[in-house]
Each structure stands twice: as structure tokens, then as C-alpha cells.
Amino acid sequence: MSQLSGIRRALTLLLVLFWSAFPIYWALNTSLMTNNEAQTRPAHFFPSPLTLASYRALFSTGASGVGEQFLRSMLNVSVECIASAVVSVVVGVAAAYALACLSFAGRRIIFGVVVLTLMIPVYATLIPTYRILIDFHLLNTYTGIVLVYAAGNLPLVMWIMYNYFSGIPRVMQEAAAVDGASPLKVLIAIMLPLARTGIIATGIISFLLSWSQFIFPLVLSTDNGTEPITVFITSLQSRMSTPFTLMNAAAVASLIVPVIVVMILNKYIINGVLEGSYR
Known about the structure:
about 280 residues, 14 helices
């Protein structure tokens, strides 16, 4: 029975791995083809001949301007994601600490409302968000994009950090309060060091969620000065033609930063989410 369950587990893992990795393989495979080969039927599972023309075009800074636009979009998405992760973590940690550790009327109701916002379809807020940014002259600005990303990630950050702070023994906070420490000093000196893993994990998750955004920046960012890489990829398509190989090359290149982040900080993501979920 145990051997059979082991086989089932292995098959399940292989299926999940295939489901997750095949789109990445297909994008890489297509990016190494010529555009004519990419459009042939039946599809080719290996490029023949293998060519790096799409990557040369993508990083070229010639008259076409594709290289400059690509690098600019990578800069845009990096700035927007880092800034939004910082904002969501700073605000989310402070709010989660207040809700989990301070006593005031209505804190449980407030936390319940925060959790309920996770159930709201995010794109239901797209049009109101667009109107708000227009009214405050934040359309096509880093500030507007960062605030939208941070607001979207904030409930998740608060939820994870609330569980972290709730799991820290209150005796430590009470001892510090007896010694005359203010709530702010307790947060900085005691709570933040103990919750460091969770803070790093929520920061990484916020960064990755912001990096994958598409619909919001497509609507809220309509010029090259602020558009992220996801919007840039779609802008490569025109009415008359679709450069499949170039679009897939851009998609593969856009994975470099998230992959590096996950590979280096993977242990913080796993430990942070697991500890935050059962505390």
C-alpha cells in the first residue's frame, strides 16, 4: 500500500511539474525559432535551425527602438515592484501589529473586513481605480502604479503578519511594557526581529505578485515611461503581424529576475508562509 501511495505521489508531482514547466519550455523553444518556423503546422518541439535572432533583436538598441523599450520596461517593472513591496510591507506590518497586539475597540471587526477583501474579484475595482487616478493626476506615473500594487497586496501581507504577531508570546511584550517601552519600541526592538522570516517572505510575495500584473498596468499605464514588461510584450503585436518569436523571447527574458529572486530567497518564502499559516 505504501509503495502504491508513493507511486501516486510521484505521478502527481510529475503531472504538476509538467503542467507548470511546459509553458516555460514552449516559450523558450519558440524564442529560439525563426518566425516562419514558429507558425508552421504541426508544431516543432525543438527549434531547427536554432537561432538567437529574437534575443539579438530584443537587446538591440538600433533604429527599431525595441531594445530601448525592452530595457525601459524592465526598469519600470523593477522600480514599481520594489517600491510597492516596500510600501505594502511597511504599512502591512504596522497594521498587523496593531490588530494583533494592541487592544482597541473593533480590531477584530477590522481584521475580518481586511480578510474579506481577499474574496473580492480584484478586477471589479479596475474602473473605480482608473477614475481615482485620473482625479488625482496619477495616471501614467510611478506613484499611481505603486499605490495600486501596494493596495492590492496589503490584505495578504496583513493576514500573514497578523498570524505571525499573534503567535509571539505576549509575556515578552508585557515585560517590555513594564520596563517602559512604548508600543512602537516593542514593535521595533522585539516583534520585528522575531518576525523577520515572515517580513522577508511577504516582501518577496508582494514583489512577485506585482511583477506578474497585466490588466491593471495595461489600463493605468499607457506610455513607455511607466509600462512594465508584461504590457511591453503585448505592444510588440501589431494589426498586420504577430512576432511570435520576439514576444516569447521577451517573455523568457522577463523571467530572469523573478527566477533569481526565488532561487536565492526560496527558503524564506517557504518558511515564512508555513510559519505564518499555523502560528
